[in-house]
TrEMBL record, chain A:
<dbReference type="InterPro" id="IPR000399">
    <property type="entry name" value="TPP-bd_CS"/>
</dbReference>
<keyword id="KW-0100">Branched-chain amino acid biosynthesis</keyword>
<dbReference type="GO" id="GO:0003984">
    <property type="term" value="F:acetolactate synthase activity"/>
</dbReference>
<keyword id="KW-0285">Flavoprotein</keyword>
<dbReference type="GO" id="GO:0009099">
    <property type="term" value="P:L-valine biosynthetic process"/>
</dbReference>
<keyword id="KW-0808">Transferase</keyword>
<keyword id="KW-0460">Magnesium</keyword>
<dbReference type="InterPro" id="IPR029061">
    <property type="entry name" value="THDP-binding"/>
</dbReference>
<dbReference type="Pfam" id="PF00205">
    <property type="entry name" value="TPP_enzyme_M"/>
</dbReference>
TrEMBL record, chain B:
<comment type="function">
    <text>Catalyzes the conversion of 2 pyruvate molecules into acetolactate in the first common step of the biosynthetic pathway of the branched-amino acids such as leucine, isoleucine, and valine.</text>
</comment>
<feature type="domain" description="ACT">
    <location>
        <begin position="7"/>
        <end position="81"/>
    </location>
</feature>
<dbReference type="InterPro" id="IPR045865">
    <property type="entry name" value="ACT-like_dom_sf"/>
</dbReference>
<comment type="pathway">
    <text>Amino-acid biosynthesis; L-valine biosynthesis; L-valine from pyruvate: step 1/4.</text>
</comment>
<dbReference type="InterPro" id="IPR019455">
    <property type="entry name" value="Acetolactate_synth_ssu_C"/>
</dbReference>
<dbReference type="GO" id="GO:0009097">
    <property type="term" value="P:isoleucine biosynthetic process"/>
</dbReference>
<keyword id="KW-0100">Branched-chain amino acid biosynthesis</keyword>
<dbReference type="Pfam" id="PF22629">
    <property type="entry name" value="ACT_AHAS_ss"/>
</dbReference>
<dbReference type="InterPro" id="IPR002912">
    <property type="entry name" value="ACT_dom"/>
</dbReference>
Length: 570, 156
């Protein structure tokens, strides 16, 4: 069938099962938008900034596991999208971004809105294409989706010059990809798994260390089964929250810079780290030379480059986490003695009793941790939580009772402020019946605040819980700890009227200074079905604790001041 | 960890952006490029990029693994048993002894390849260490310009 390149793009998206595209038109992508106007195979959401379009597609992808799609124009449209691409790249999120480019006759001439999109995006995409021939377009679109979702997932950019989207050619969407140079998806080797199983049986203090790869490979059920079968305690990274479920007695919690005491102590004392889709990020390991000092390491990862990148691995297993865990279960079945790690679990339980994840509540001022715990009590299981980046993100990670994977959507690797609201739009589009809450701060929310308009226009009622401490809080915390209280450019006490801001964008705003107001506002926000700002004044100088200072050792944490039953006031 | 030298052949799809993907990977991740040569492989749609690099064991390991992740990369060969050659062209003033330099080039698998009115050009193709020796030896004939090629290598 003959059609132009723009129609080919639409046909390909429909063939890939795309329901929602997030984007923003402009000169070089207009042909495609003209084709979108004429079709009804998918819905297009007009964000108010290209960065938000990409984050929304990203949020959609994280919540569903499907490939998110965003569309932008050339030049500034594309450069605005770069932060979104980098965010998705760092967290291995499957995504296809389609960008317009100047016509080929102008390529390389510094034409209006021309920028080398493929050159700029090379280090922050899994792969990218500049389409030079209309006859290649169907194949390239097919490959883009294939590459985005297979192996270690990631974003793929397809940059299409305007003359190509206008040109007419024969279209037949390929059913298969032929990419002989593309790395085969590795399969875990039997002998590697067997070696790991023997190591587990030998270990006295093994620890399951679960990362974002467990979410990407939908390995949650398998990992819960592995833990249950072996009774090995587990820790989760920021990206893995929900994999074990917060009620699971084998879950110690989150480890790393703001991990809890028991998790970090477990990692410091374990004799066998069983890494499942984690990548030994510096925010997890602290000082590398001290990390897992007494441990042998089993490392399961679909990306061979992650293995041995930072730590020496004794038992590498290259392959999909879910497959590898299922093979481990088969290997351990009938052989593992569930009592063999009793002493180890007991030690860890004592650590947890010593310093549980806690905070000192107040009757005078709202503590940010209280907000998160209350949120958990009021909406808990039925909500999906997105977040921005900073203190609020860590409090949400520490205190919200995540009980399933893909319930917690945040920018872990790149740490992108402004991610939360547009990502929440993507999540809510995918799951309109779920309560979607963006836990944010007064710093982050202003980066992409324009998405209030998008949310109102398309009736995507996401609730923004703004933990407002009138500071760029995490930086302020570091200034307190490491820069002698010199609060360089972190005081945000000059503020917009958040309630009025939400209302100006056809949403609903709440100014909240008491716990009672919080409860009432949350109830109302859920009932109102409008995009909402809950502007909550919280304790200004609250710190995120525990904290392992950058490049510190995991067992050397700054701990909250709490009344301790065994040790007395610390 | 101690640094060692390694020659890597990267077999890639012969397409316009592939060299920037490879060189960009080295730049972005802070890997060293000593020399880099690239040419199409005869009778195929592929090219061979030969890179001489150095680094500690972990880095060299990462280089191979990261290269393998690039979509247009077919194969990464870390050379161990190999024949390795590099070429150099040197321009000398006509006043220098043609016979001496011809003998010198001859000692390093080379010869005089061009003689003009005011200069002549010697060429040598040999192992990189011997090419360095040749360049040192050529210094006393007042070379006007020295152009080195990169390393090419083939498995034995």
């Amino acid at each position: 069938m003959e059609m132009n390149g723009a129609q080919m793009v639409c046909e390909a998206l429909v063939a890939e099962g795309v329901k929602t595209v997030f984007g923003y038109p402009g000169g070089a992508i207009m042909n495609v938008y003209d084709a979108i106007y004429k079709q009804d195979g998918f819905e297009h959401i007009l964000n108010r900034h290209e960065q938000a379009s990409v984050h929304a597609a990203d949020g959609y992808a994280r919540a569903t596991g499907e490939v998110g799609v965003a569309m932008v124009t050339s030049g500034p449209g594309f450069t605005n999208a770069v932060t979104g691409l980098a965010t998705a790249y760092m967290d291995s999120i499957p995504m296809v971004v389609i960008s317009g480019q100047v016509p080929q006759s102008l390529l390389g001439t510094d034409g209006f809105q021309e920028i080398d999109a493929v050159g700029i995006s090379r280090p922050c995409t899994k792969h990218n294409y500049l389409v030079r021939d209309i006859n290649h377009l169907p194949r390239i679109l097919k490959e883009a989706f294939h590459i985005a979702r297979t192996g270690r997932p990631g974003p793929v950019l397809v940059d299409i010059p305007k003359d190509i989207t206008a040109e007419v050619a024969e279209f037949a969407y390929p059913t298969d990809v032929n990419l002989p140079s593309y790395m085969k998806v590795p399969k875990a080797k039997e002998e590697d798994v067997n070696a790991a199983v023997e190591a587990i049986l030998q270990a006295k203090k093994p620890l399951l260390y679960i990362g974002g790869g467990a979410v990407l490979s939908n390995a949650s059920d398998a990992i819960r089964e592995l833990a249950e079968l072996s009774q090995i305690p587990t820790v989760e990274t920021l990206m893995a929250l929900g994999v074990m479920g917060n009620k699971n007695p084998l879950l110690l919690g989150m480890l790393g810079m703001h991990g809890n005491y028991a998790s970090n102590m477990a990692m410091s004392e374990t004799d066998l780290i069983i890494s499942l889709g984690a990548r030994f990020d510096d925010r997890v390991t602290g000082k590398l030379s001290e990390f897992g000092k007494y441990a042998k390491i089993i490392h399961v990862d679909i990306d061979p480059a992650n293995i041995g990148k930072l730590v020496n691995v004794n038992y590498p297993i290259i392959g999909d986490v879910k497959d590898a865990v299922e093979m481990m279960i088969a290997g351990l079945q009938g052989r593992v003695n569930t009592e063999q790690y009793n002493d180890w679990r007991e030690v860890l339980a004592r650590y947890d009793a010593l310093y549980p994840q806690s905070f000192e509540d107040s009757d005078e001022v709202i503590k940010p941790q209280w907000v998160i715990e209350r949120l958990g009590e009021l909406v808990g299981e039925q909500a999906i939580i997105t977040s921005d980046v900073g203190q609020h993100q860590m409090w949400a990670a520490q205190h919200f009772p995540f009980d399933r994977p893909r319930q917690w959507i945040n920018s872990g690797g790149l740490g992108t402020m402004g991610f939360g609201l547009p990502a929440a739009l993507g999540v809510k589009k995918a799951f309109p019946d779920k309560t979607v809450i963006n836990v944010t701060g007064d710093g982050s929310i202003l980066m992409n605040v324009q998405e209030l308009v998008t949310a109102s226009e398309y009736k995507i009622p996401v609730i923004n819980v703004i933990l407002n401490n009138q500071f760029l809080g995490m930086v302020r915390q570091w200034q307190t700890f490491f820069y002698n209280d010199r609060f360089a450019e972190t005081d945000l006490s000059f503020q917009p009227n958040y309630k009025a801001l939400a209302e100006a964008c056809h949403g609903i705003g709440y100014d909240i200074t008491t716990k009672e107001e919080f409860d009432a506002a949350l109830k109302d926000a859920i009932a109102q079905d409008k995009v909402a700002f809950m502007n909550i004044q919280v304790a200004r100088f609250e710190d995120v604790l525990p904290m392992v200072p950058s490049n510190g050792t995991l067992n050397n944490m700054m701990l909250p001041k709490i009344a301790n039953p065994e040790k007395g006031e610390k | 960890m101690s640094e060692s030298r390694r020659v890597i052949s990267v077999i890639v799809e012969n397409e316009s952006s592939v060299l920037s993907r490879v060189s960009g990977l080295f730049a972005g991740r802070g890997y060293n490029i000593g020399t880099l040569t690239v040419a199409p492989i005869p009778n195929s749609q592929r090219s061979r990029i030969t890179i001489a690099t150095k680094g500690d064991e972990r880095t060299l390991n990462q280089i191979t693994k990261q290269l393998n992740k690039l979509v247009p990369v077919y194969e990464v060969v870390e050379h161990d048993e190999m024949v390795e050659k590099e070429m150099v062209l040197v321009k000398f003033p006509i006043e220098e002894s043609l016979a001496d330099i011809e003998a010198l080039c001859g000692a390093y698998n080379g010869t005089i390849v061009n003689v003009g009115v005011s200069m002549f050009i010697g060429m040598v193709a040999d192992e990189p260490a011997r090419v360095r020796n040749f360049i040192n030896a050529a210094q006393r004939y007042n070379p006007i310009e020295i152009v080195r090629g990169g390393v090419v290598a083939i498995e034995r």
